[in-house]
Write a structure and sequence with these properties.
This is N-acetyltransferase. 29% of the residues lie in helices and 34% in strands. The protein has 159 residues and is α+β, with helices and mostly antiparallel strands. The chain has a single domain, classed as Gcn5-related N-acetyltransferase (GNAT) (Aminopeptidase, 3-Layer(aba) Sandwich). A seven-stranded mixed beta sheet has the order 1-2-3-4-5-7-6, with helices on both faces. A hairpin with a 7-residue loop joins strand 3 and strand 4.
Length: 159
């Protein structure tokens, strides 16, 4: 079940976001719960951040934003993660399928996302979901525990 996140989801979202296999590929470095609260406040306030529940537990999340103006036919998928224990279960593919179906109903014709170039698992996954490479932002990203920059890849799927 996809639903807009609420502040009641703080603990579950924090636990997944800060998981050692997830946090390297999201937009913030590891931090204490008290600091993460401000990030969660922003995500909830955006009214574009969704949690995905399976068996009554948050097992994934994503942010889905429509572009404005002349780009209104497009949307951006970000802050997308599923619990590592869900790998291979089809949950991530199901989320993408549900998002695409909803966007098509709303007249969206383009879905974009960014991912780190050092995340080959995600790259393969998105390619299987029909996303295509469109560009590279060189030296776009740096994790606090690394001394080098990471490129970000722009991918898109035409709906």
């Amino acid at each position: 079940m996809h639903r807009l996140a609420t502040l009641d989801d703080l603990q579950a979202v924090y636990a997944l976001y800060m998981h050692e296999e997830v946090v390297p590929y999201l937009g913030h470095d590891p931090m204490p719960l008290a600091e993460f609260r401000a990030i969660m406040d922003e995500l909830v306030a955006s009214r574009s951040f969704y949690v995905v529940e399976r068996d009554g537990q948050v097992r994934g999340f994503y942010r889905l934003s429509r572009h404005a103006g002349r780009a209104r036919h497009g949307a951006y998928l970000g802050t997308f993660a599923v619990a590592p224990s869900e790998r291979g279960t089809g949950l991530a593919a199901s989320i993408i399928g549900d998002v695409v179906s909803r966007l098509r109903r709303d007249g969206v014709r383009r879905l974009e996302l960014m991912l780190e170039a050092d995340n080959p698992r995600a790259l393969r996954f998105y390619e299987k979901q029909g996303f295509e490479f469109e560009g590279r932002l060189r030296n776009a990203y740096r994790r606090s525990d690394q001394d080098h920059d990471v490129d970000e890849l722009l991918m898109a799927r035409l709906l």
